[in-house]
Amino acid sequence: MKGARPALRYAKALLTLATDTGSESEVNDNMKLIVDTIAESSDLDAMLKSPVIKAADKRKVLTALFGDKVNNVLKGLFNVLEENKRMVMLEPIAKQYAVIYDYHRSMQVARVTTAVPLTDDLEKRILAKIVELTGNQASIENIVNPEILGGFILRVGDVQYDASISNQFNELRREFDNSHYIPKI
Q1: How do the residues of the chain divide into helix, strand and coil, expressed in percent and rounded to 5?
Q2: SS3 137
Q3: Per-residue pLDDT, 174
Q4: What is the SS3 assignment for 177?
Q5: Whose CA is closest to 113, among 153, 55, 83?
Q6: How do strand 137-144 and strand 159-164 relate by DSSP bridges?
Q7: Distance CA 147, CA 31 (A)
Q8: Mean pLDDT confidence for 127-156
Q9: Can you give the residue ranges of every domain in the chain?
Q10: pLDDT of residue 83
Q11: SS3 category, 184
């Protein structure tokens, strides 16, 4: 992925600065706001990626848009990105910050794919089970995919547990395909 290394360096520096000022959680919330806003607005995304628009104008738009919603650490990031002409990297930096912030807090992201949205009770039980199995806290990202029919697919880090109905059907299909079952006529 182009620009991933510089984005990671900016995110690490930002986390260090935020930790020094005691505002790493607030910066994380601000970064999520930035990622969500860019994802919702194709115009903002196009403006940040445009080589025609000057970096100073991009910073002015970001300051007007997020001025009172973000803390001073992020306002400083806007200025640094303007000086280095790297405004296009704002979204990758925000995404990388979330990843290293979770790692810094020994927090994992557990992706749970279900056919229907998770209830609060089930979410609490899943979080407790993840802590029991891994020893680390986790946040849950629920992905709703009706194609799995039922059950769930849990992915924590690089470990995946597939307890979906569609997976069980596929295993059953493979078992029948590999067997020497000859139907009676």
Answers
A1: 65, 15, 20
A2: strand
A3: 85
A4: helix
A5: 153
A6: unpaired
A7: 32
A8: 84
A9: 4-103, 106-178
A10: 92
A11: coil
Q: In what order do the strands lie in the sheet with 107-114?
A: 137-144, 107-114, 151-156, 159-164
Tens of pLDDT, residues 107-133: 778 888 998 998 889 888 888 888 887
Q: How is residue 173 written in tokens?
A: 């299909």
The CATH code belonging to domain 4-103 is 1.10.520.20
Residue 141 reports pLDDT greater than 70: yes
Flag whether pLDDT at 96 surpasses 60. yes
* pTM exceeds cut of 0.70: no
Angle subtended at Cα 112 by Cα 110 and Cα 117, rounded to the nearest 5 degrees = 130
- Judge contact between 159 and 111, C-beta under 8 A: no
**DSSP per residue, 65-125:** HHTTTS-HHHHHHHHHHHHTT-GGGHHHHHHHHHHHHHHHTTEEEEEEEESSPPPHHHHHH
Phi, psi of 40 (to 5 degrees): -80, -25
Query: Residue 92's pLDDT is what?
Result: 92
